Fold this protein.
Amino acid sequence: MTDAQKYWQANIRLVIGCLVVWFSVSFGAGILFVHQLNSITILGGYPLGFWFAQQGSIYTFVALIFFYAWRMGQLDHKFGVSED
Amino acid sequence: MTNLQMWTYAVVGATFLLYIFIAIKARATTTGEFYVAGKGVHPVLNGMATGADWMSAASFISMAGLIAFKGYDASVYLMGWTGGYCLLAMLLAPYLRKYGKFTVPEFIGDRFYSQTARVVAVICLIVASLTYVIGQMKGIGVAFSRFLEMDFQTGLMVGMGIVFIYAVLGGMKGVTYTQIAQYCVLIFAYTVPAVFISLSLTGNAIPQLGLGSVMADGSGVHLLEKMDQTLTDLGFAAYTAQKGSTINMFLLTLSLMIGTAGLPHVITRFFTVPKVRDARSTAGWSLVFIALLYTTAPAVGAMARLNLINTIQADSIAPDTTQNLKIDSLPAWFTNWEKTGLLKYEDKNGDGRIQYVGPNYKGVDANGDIVVNEMVKVDRDIMVLANPEIAQLPNWVIALVAAGGIAAALSTAAGLLLAISSAISHDIIKGIVAKDISDKGELMAGRIAMAGAICVAGYLGMHPPGFAAQVVALAFGLAASSIFPALMMGIFAKRVNNIGAVCGMLAGLGTTLVYIFWFKGWFFMGAPMAADIEANWIFGIAPSSFGAIGALINFIVALTVSSFTAPPPEHIQHLVEDIRVPMRSKGAVDH
């Protein structure tokens, strides 16, 4: 396998990992399992499922993008395909 | 002129002067500057501009109201309109930036070596952007007519004039720097009242935490519990309970996410940064700036609703209604909003007071009659705009909200108009009609297209088609079912060829349009083929949730057709390999 193929494979793996988290916090915690999670309360009076749907998923999205950008920067350097 | 009007003229006037000042400072002199701001915008600043570009009059004015009345069910908008940025950051933006051209249809046309694909993309772009722009124009008109007591049309003309100055002169460069200023105005205007209200209701200055806090009235009850309690006591559905079906919440969230990632005016913003690396991080910064408003909105919605109920229905639980708001001593905000027609009451039982109860209320009044709701109209758009007045905040805060609403509408309108004019001057004129046009000629064509687009948008704003409320579903449906899948396959599926891509786009687009029109009437004008109710929907899928299904159809058709037809030529395969690595990207121009 060429370096370019390895780089692309590492990229795909990273994207899939991130999208699993993306799906879990929004569609998982915020919609599919919202009733089960609502029996737990956090940060004072937030039912957990409701919190994920209106707050938590958004915070996770932000963290996820910065994590992805940082990991991709590392991969760019490792495989020598960085812009600089 | 009242004190409030003076404040409003001063604050709105000051922001307008700022926008014009920026327009003069940031004039575009080349097509590179006109289309992509010379690819020299810092990723953090671009994040702010993207935030303003994305957050429209709907986000600023309507979203908190939507949350106030739908409670948990409105989470689909919060997740849907933010989660799309993850898809943009990981699946589209860095690669499209690496390709380094000016417009979205240009990439689709080049990658699928097909003018047809490019034209289909241009049509989707123009329809999606135009439908979206009507809503912005309406937002500008409403803000002007309520706060400056100007008539709707004059307000709209002033708004158009401002956009004209900075968008025609500055193109993307002017739009970018005004959007940065507009972001600052709108986020300040949104958070200041939220902080005030959160403080007064819960004693917590951070609205995001206030929503989960204990009420400051000494009852020891949490705000969300209090909401659920008050609403169910008054015969409304509980705030944190789910009302809609799970499948529609799921699909609508997914459609909004994919649609967000496929809206051309958002994607184009990622073309303006200097490097591929910046395209990734600017998506993160955009979402930081968007999240500031999107995580505040749930608090604003819940608190505004509670304030509204408490103002009208002073004693919310006992059947005794003698504490309710008296008709002969209505507060000023109430009569002001009544004049706009967005708020209406009828004293049905003639007791001289207003009762605000839900459909399931069973309480009785002094005569033993069941109390019926007398707030016959509470438009959800007033929740943000009237919120500071209901909470009795100072006049300068109210003026700020007016300026913020106008900033949100103007910034999104400018982004959309730019996407439309670039598609016309770059994709149609330069790409198809007059291939040998000079840079100068194309720049002029861009400016003329922009001026034309502003006039069309203004006309549509003044004579909004009756279906204006339905079109948001259409814009997202188009972006989700045609543009997003085409772009993603262009990058991730090397095997997809011209025939596959065109068939996929038409199949996704066609099914989505037919499904929406089937329940909403052909082109929103004729009678619908079937009533728009859950019993008629296929598998219970609402028309506005169909974009995700359209996208799926697009993927399946494009991949299947491609596998039976010839693979793309070698130079296209090289192009795909090339955009997959950041190396050797074309840097900033003219900087």
Remarks:
- The mean pLDDT of chain B is 84.
- Strands of chain B lie at 343-344, 377-378.
- Chain B touches chain A through 50 residues (CB under 8 Å).
- The CA atoms of residues 54 and 365 of chain B lie 48 Å apart.
